[in-house]
Specification:
By secondary structure, this protein is α/β, with parallel strands linked by helices. It has ten helices and 13 strands. It has two domains: 70 residues, Spermidine Synthase, Chain: A, domain 2 (Roll), CATH 2.30.140.10; 220 residues, 3-Layer(aba) Sandwich (Rossmann fold). Strand 1 and strand 2 form a beta hairpin.
């Protein structure tokens, strides 16, 4: 839920009961995720949202925004590596990369592994997420130390409109489609991403869960297919996200499928915890129920 939708008096701290943080989201009714809390290290409210960092007993540091788990140190690599490496490897030799959201810095960390990249720009509207992630999630926020990174504290849609035909890869690392983030799951935003791509470019966005959000994913893919050359859905497994799975919507501009990586870097794969060429290709193989629900 967005900050404006949080009932009066409820905040991240209200979700800690008997030493456990309980995530209950409106987008996953009837189920919840609980993590045992060792220590709360920060809680406050930015201009945009409620922010909570706590040390868990088994999952390391945890970032929670508006009551929803965004990152745990235990499993963040499966999300950060896949949302970044799939489009980067599918492109093959990106030089200019844009990140929308992703204030924790994990996507930046993954992009920085690529020597072909000359410029990395991140548009994050909430500067507090960046500042507190640098303090409490240094293994992710290390991405900000790369000299190729430029930080823009602003609306990513505005920045893309100002830079048409510019970027080889655009990655949107967003929260769920409720409150302020809802516009990031609408066709005009995807059209803005497509227009900001250079020829042959790739976009990749957080694409929600195939177990929970088929009715959201299908119409979005249908809308995006009207202006992208190809539109595909891939996924990764991640224990602390709803139903243990999160998807990615990938679109291209003058380029065909992203299912097979153009670039394969076995040396880089040795430094990664989740992504490799085989996982890249397998990520697009959907269970029958999801394939039918999303694409038929």
């Amino acid at each position: 839920m967005s900050a404006s939708e949080i009932p009066q008096g409820l905040n991240g701290m209200d979700l800690i009961i008997d030493g456990w943080f309980h995530e209950r989201g409106t987008l996953w009714p009837g189920q919840a995720m609980s993590l045992q809390v060792a220590e709360v290290v920060y809680h406050g409210r930015s201009k945009y949202q409620d922010i909570l960092f706590f040390k868990s007993t088994n999952h390391g540091m945890v970032l929670v925004l508006d009551g929803v788990i965004q990152v745990t140190e235990h499993d963040e690599h499966s999300y950060q590596e896949m949302i970044a490496q799939i489009p980067l490897m599918a492109h093959g030799s990106p030089k200019k990369v844009l990140v929308i959201g992703g204030g924790d810095g994990g996507v930046l960390r993954e992009i920085a592994r690529h020597s072909s990249v000359e410029e990395i720009t991140i548009c994050e509207i909430d500067e507090d997420v960046i500042n507190y992630s640098k303090k409490y999630l240094p293994t992710l926020a290390i991405g900000y130390t790369d000299p190729r990174v430029t930080v823009k504290i602003m609306d990513g849609s505005v920045f893309m409109a100002q830079n048409p035909g510019t970027f080889d890869v655009i990655i949107t690392d967003s929260s769920d489609p409720i409150g302020p983030a809802s516009v990031l799951f609408e066709a005009p935003f995807y059209k803005g991403m497509h227009d900001a791509l250079a020829p042959g470019g790739v976009i990749c966005t957080q694409g929600e869960c195939m177990w929970l959000h088929k009715d959201l994913i299908k119409p979005l893919i249908q809308a995006v297919s009207k202006f992208c050359t190809s539109v595909e859905y891939a996924f990764t497994t991640i224990p602390t996200y709803p139903s243990g799975q999160i998807g990615f919507i990938l679109g291209t501009k003058g380029k065909e499928s992203c299912k097979v990586p153009v670039k394969v870097d076995r040396e880089m794969e040795e430094s990664l915890n989740y992504y490799n060429k085989e996982v890249h290709e397998a990520a697009f193989v959907l269970p029958s129920f999801a394939r039918r629900a999303i694409f038929e």
